[in-house]
Amino acid sequence: MPSLNTALIAALSGAFGAILSALITVVLGRIFLSARDKQDREAEWRKHAIELTKLELERKLKSGRDLKENPLRPTILDFLANYRDLQELGMKSPSDLYKKILSDRISNHKPAEK
Length: 114
What we know:
Layout: H1 2-61, H2 75-89, H3 94-105
């Protein structure tokens, strides 16, 4: 009978070891994959921010406004604003971000009259 108990303990410890190693693998994989996912997400945000900035600059240049009287703001500021908005969109819902942009970032001032 002692050999049956020993065999049972060996089988249970082997099963426990397999389960424990699987859990450790899942946890470590999750940590490394989440870091990789974050890098991939940020790379996509940068690409999208660049494309949005290009489109915005093209729209401003084709608007027909007098660039000497009303110069464009530096394009890097548009890029940074787009990138910031995309990062915030990763943490908030689109409606929350839209409300924040309307309330905090769009000024309601009238252009200077001549």
